[in-house]
Amino acid sequence: MKILFTKSGSSPYRVDFYNELGKHIELDVLYEYRIAFDRDKSWSLKKAHNFKEYFLKSFHLFGSKVISFGFTKYLKKDYDVIIVGEYNTLTGRLITLFLSIKKIPFALNIDGGYIKNDNWLKKKIKTFFISKATWWLSPSVESDSYLKYYGANENNIHRYPFTSVFEREILKDILSVKEKDDIKSRLGIAEQKVIITVGRFIKSKGFDILLKAFSQVDSETGLYIVGGEPTEEYLELIKEYNLKNVHFIEFLNKDELANYYKAADLFVLPTRKDVWGLVINEAMAFGLPIITTDKCVAGMELVENKGNGFIIPIEDQNELSKKMNVILSDNKLRNKMALNSLKKIKQFTIEEMAKAHLTFFNKIVKNK
C-alpha cells in the first residue's frame, strides 16, 4: 500500500508518527518547507527512517506566509490514498484545488479544531476548502463538529487519536513522594508542591492569567514555566502581584522536559485558544492532574472534570486559582486524578495513532 501525506513543515512528533506508520506501508511525506519560521531553533528535527520525505521549494512572502511550488509531480503519482495535512496555508489550498480539479479523491487531516465566530467571508473560504475532501481524519468530538460545520460529510469522518507520546513513554504507575523528592533535588527544586506549564510565550497561551491566579496559591508552591526567557509583561506581573517561587525555564527537549513533569504535582494550560495542545498528552503520560480551558481541544477530549482534572472558562483567574488549590491541598484527589490520567492516555499513543490510520487506509483501499 502506497500513501502520500502533505504537510506544511516537519515536526518531531509528526516524524515519530510517520516512522511508526512507515513500518507497515510504503509512505511518502511532502513538506511545504523545512521548519516553521516561528519555532525555536532548538525544536530539532528527527530523521526519517521508515518513510521518504520531500521538501518543496518555498518562497517567503511576508510575515509567516510561505508559498511553495512543484507539488503537482508528486500528486500525479499512483498513490492508494493521499492525505492533505493543511487547508489554511497558501500551498495547502493550491494542493486542494489541484486534487479537486483533477477529481483525485483525498483525505483532509486536521490536528484539532473548534468552531469560531468567523465573519461570512472567512466561513465561506473555510467551507470551500474543507468540503473539497472526500474523507476527513479527526482527533476528537469537538473536531468532528468543526469539520461538519464547515461542510464535511459526517459519514466520511474517521477518528484517530492525536498524540506525541509513545506507549513506552507512559509511566507504569504514579511516582512516590520519595521518587519525586529525589528528582526535585537533582533539579534544584526547593518547593513542597510544583505546578508546571509548557509552551511558547505568546498571548494565546494565557500565562498572564496563570501568573495572576498563582498569587492566590500557597506560598510553599513553585510555578515552573517552561518555554524561554520571560517577557516584560510577565516580569511586570511578578512585580505587581509580589510573586515568589516563579521560575522560567529555557526551551527543553523532550527528554529534558521529562524530569520536570516527573517532579511536578499539577499541569496547567490556561490557553485562550488551542486547536489541540500536545503538552496535555505529554503531562498525562507522566501521571499529572490537568487544569485547562474550554478552548483547548485536547483538554476537551482528554480531561474529565473531577476525573483527571478540571476544565475552566478562559481568562478566569479566580476559578483557576480555586481549582489549583483544590488539587494541591488534597493528596487523595491528586493521586486519583494522576492514575486516571495514566489510564486515559494509554489510548492516545503513537502506536494507536498509526493503527487508526492503517484501519482507515485498509477501508478506503478495500472499497475502491
TrEMBL record:
Pfam family for this entry, one: Glycos_transf_1
E.C. number: 2.4.-.-
One GO MF term attached to the UniProt entry: glycosyltransferase activity
UniProt keyword annotations, A-Z: Glycosyltransferase, Transferase
Domain Glycosyl transferase family span(s) in chain numbering: 180-341
Transmembrane segments: none
PANTHER family: SULFOQUINOVOSYL TRANSFERASE SQD2
Protein name listed in UniProt: Glycosyltransferase family 4 protein
